[in-house]
């Protein structure tokens, strides 16, 4: 009589294992990574919402402030022409000091770094010859004014003032006495100066003034003149200095920063003629910039962390696979997939917690949750405490290594490359114990 009782499936041939298992686990890996890409989309969507909130603060509080000037401006005409032009004279000397008072503004879970700026300046103008203007220039010194331009005039106070040669002069918007097309910018401030007659060539006039402004992110100053001494200080511990001119000195501490720019470029043009007031020439401008950077750029760090998801999943799958090769543990492909799903949630947990409690605390909480879940699941799958502890130690080391790697700037590529090299060396050493042509009876596919 034929025996039809159920029997266990014969183990795969040596040529089928571990090839079949590798293919199945690789398919699980691909499925896990596809799920991870959708989570990366969520991170990018949250970053876009943060950027929209920042744009809103630029509108309601103030933009990244850029200050031009001051310039002495004299309207003139050539001969009998009706076209009015502007003779612009840069300061002979200019010394400025800007104090930034920073604060964090929140809207829901999103925040932005804003500041109030007190911009104080002093210096002198020296009246130049007018030969560069052409033949028969008719300068209207009675209509001369000093102009300063900023990105917006948000934040100005009643205490803002301008003094010309010891006499107080009121600030006015440039468009109050010039046509809109001539003024150039709606945020150009002008002070009408008391010059009823043409001053002598070489005459010097002193000035002082201040402006109160509000902005977001950074403060920049466009230097106009030959002898410049500008300083910026603020209560922010992580500034960045840029522009076309770096500071001569800079001091950064936990309590704040101070920086000083010095420029004595006697080749720069001290006078120019324009059809509009303060026509900028970005190619030839000398600009200083103090940017208020986030101590930890949350979304940039989360984006970088999410890109390492493939490393976490590959090494975790490799660890499970080594458990199967080196012991008699049997792990189903579905269990590989559930482990991958647990690891993929790390980026989603990180962005969720980081928005509420900050990047560092969010990283600790989200990595701790994933580590606990994956380790407990490994203990249930392998039914061996040693395996669970080994897997937990491996995963904890990965989270710790990733945190350090993301914190590095200059040496992140070097440290990351060395870390991958060491991990590959460890896997190569462990797999030396595997008898690849004798594993067919050890594990089922």
Structural write-up:
A hairpin with a 2-residue loop joins strand 15 and strand 16 (256-264). The strands form 2 sheets. Strands 1, 2, 5, 6, 9, 10, 12, 14, 17 and 18 form a 10-stranded mixed beta sheet that branches. This protein has an 8-stranded mixed beta sheet with strand order 8-7-11-4-3-13-16-15, with helices on one face. The chain has 445 residues and is α+β, with helices and mostly antiparallel strands. The chain folds into 2 domains: 19-48 and 299-433, no CATH class; 63-295, Immunoglobulin-like (Sandwich). It has 8 helices and 18 strands.
The SSE string, one letter per element, is: HEEEEEEEEEHEEEEEEEEEHHHHHH
> Can you tell me the residue ranges where pLDDT is under 50 for at least 5 consecutive residues?
1-15, 440-445
Helix content: 25-40%
Number of domains: 2
Strand content: 25-35%
Name the average pLDDT: 81
How are the SSEs placed, and which strands pair?
Blueprint: H1 19-60, E1 65-78, E2 85-89, E3 93-107, E4 110-126, E5 137-139, E6 145-149, E7 162-164, E8 167-169, E9 172-173, H2 180-183, E10 188-192, E11 204-216, E12 218-223, E13 227-234, E14 239-243, E15 249-253, E16 256-264, E17 271-274, E18 286-292, H3 298-307, H4 309-326, H5 333-357, H6 359-382, H7 385-407, H8 412-430
Parallel strand pairs: 1-12, 3-13
Antiparallel strand pairs: 1-2, 1-5, 1-6, 2-17, 3-4, 4-11, 6-10, 7-8, 7-11, 9-10, 12-18, 13-16, 14-18, 15-16
Helix pairs in contact: 1-3, 1-4, 1-5, 3-5, 4-5, 4-7, 5-6, 6-7, 7-8
């Amino acid at each position: 009589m034929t025996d039809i009782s159920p029997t266990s499936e014969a183990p795969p041939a040596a040529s089928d294992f571990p090839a079949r298992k590798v293919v199945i686990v690789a398919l699980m890996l691909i499925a896990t990574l596809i799920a991870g890409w959708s989570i990366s989309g969520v991170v990018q969507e949250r970053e876009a919402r943060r950027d929209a909130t920042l744009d809103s603060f630029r509108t309601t509080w103030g933009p990244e402030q850029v200050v031009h000037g001051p310039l002495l401006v004299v309207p003139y005409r050539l001969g009998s022409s009706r076209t009015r032009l502007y003779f612009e004279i840069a300061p002979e000397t200019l010394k400025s000091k800007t104090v930034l008072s920073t604060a964090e503004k929140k809207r829901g879970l999103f925040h932005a770094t804003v500041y109030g700026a007190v911009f104080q300046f002093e210096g002198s103008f020296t009246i130049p010859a007018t030969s560069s203007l052409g033949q028969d220039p008719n300068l209207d010194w009675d209509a001369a004014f000093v102009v300063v331009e900023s990105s917006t005039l948000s934040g100005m106070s009643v205490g803002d003032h301008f003094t010309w040669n010891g006499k107080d002069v009121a600030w006015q918007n440039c468009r109050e006495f010039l046509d809109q097309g001539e003024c150039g910018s709606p945020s150009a401030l002008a002070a009408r100066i008391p010059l009823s007659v043409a001053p002598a060539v070489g005459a010097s006039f002193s000035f002082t003034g201040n402006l109160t402004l509000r902005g977001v992110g950074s403060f920049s100053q466009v230097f106009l003149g030959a002898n410049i001494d500008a300083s910026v200080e603020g209560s922010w511990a992580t500034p960045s200095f840029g522009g076309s001119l770096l500071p001569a000195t800079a001091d950064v501490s936990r309590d704040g920063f101070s920086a000083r720019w010095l420029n004595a470029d006697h080749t720069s043009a001290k006078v120019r003629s324009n059809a509009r007031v303060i026509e900028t020439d970005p190619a030839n401008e000398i600009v200083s910039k103090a940017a208020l950077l986030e101590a930890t750029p949350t979304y940039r760090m989360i984006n970088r962390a999410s890109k390492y998801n493939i490393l976490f999943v590959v090494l975790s799958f490799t660890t499970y696979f080594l458990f199967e090769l080196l012991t008699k543990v049997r792990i189903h492909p579905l269990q590989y997939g559930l482990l991958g799903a647990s690891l993929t949630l790390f980026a989603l947990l990180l962005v969720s917690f980081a928005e509420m409690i900050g990047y560092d605390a969010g990283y600790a909480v989200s990595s701790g949750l994933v580590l606990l879940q994956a380790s407990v699941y490994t203990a249930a799958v392998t039914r061996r405490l040693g395996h669970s502890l080994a897997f937990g130690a491996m995963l904890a080391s990965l989270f710790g290594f990733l945190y350090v790697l993301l914190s590095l700037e200059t040496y992140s590529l070097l440290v990351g490359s060395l870390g991958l090299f060491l991990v590959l060396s460890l896997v190569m050493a462990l797999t030396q114990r595997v008898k690849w042509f004798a594993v067919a009876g050890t594990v089922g596919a």
